[in-house]
Design brief:
25% helix; alpha/beta; 10 helices; 7-stranded mixed beta sheet; globular; 346 residues; 6-stranded parallel beta sheet; single chain
Length: 346
Amino acid sequence: MTAAPSDRRHASRTHREIRLAARPVAGAPLTDSLFEIVKVPTPSPQPGQLLVRTQVMSVAAVMRTLMNETTTVPMRPFALGAPLYGPAIGEVVSAPGTEFALGDVVLHDLGWREFALLDATAAQRVDPGLLPDSAAYLSQGPTAWMAVTRGAEVGPGNTVFVSGAAGGVGSIAGQAARLRGARRVIGSAGSQRKANILREELGYDAVILRDAGPLEEQLRVSAPQGVDAVIDTVGGEQLQAAIAVANRGARIALVGALDAQLTDSGTPATAIDTFALLTRSITLRRTVLHADHLDLIPEWHHQFGAGLRDGTLSFPHSRLHGLHNAPRALRELIEGRHIGAVLVEL
């Protein structure tokens, strides 16, 4: 069934999408040759489907993992010769037989293309007036808020450590910890430039550097009274350091595993001091947004919108322009060039 002409007034006959042209070689940097930009016919939705014009999409470190043929990540790998996928915000331009209206702004998972065809059940309508910029719906704020409130249970007076503090989760987790009354917030970063931004712009009290000596020693200096709560997005040596410096009763929210995701060979194991966990009553929690925590998403968005408007919160991100820059955006994210979320505006 072809949509009515008025339904498609914003759609062109063809559009571009980015496909995976080849699998990356372990240890080798991402190159443009791994991607292919293809012009294809713009589809017509059937009843119950939406055609959405993509406005902005995000890239994430997990996408590097999904480029491999197999992965232990509970997400489907990208298929060779097929478009990549990922979070995107777009405008509905056709919606036959659905409750969506033309012009609705929706969140969906079919980025990497100018127009997305999807079932209405796969799109989430968002309120463009709730956040000052609809692109902020692509932040990892809900994950950060969940990690701070339910994973690490940050409370007044706590000293908090956030690994990977310059990333999409970490750049917001530090701010969220302040909202919960944290007394001292410490982060980790990969460069002095990032450390300066974290301290001067994002409210971190101290930052330890990945290549500036043993992380445990750095963390002990930055947290002389120990750490009460941890938001860990990295794993590896940073998680080990957090456990070593954790106070009795500390809570550790395990949010990500960048140390494993970006490794060149295999999946590295993180040696956990289980004796320390037992004797100091330290809690480790897998902290993932699932059905039990979906109530936190609207809660965070209302908090985020208010904070963005009154200046008490910020949305750290980089924004590249043009679909053709999506591979570059992913490459630069993996190389650690940006602070916060990395977005591509179409």
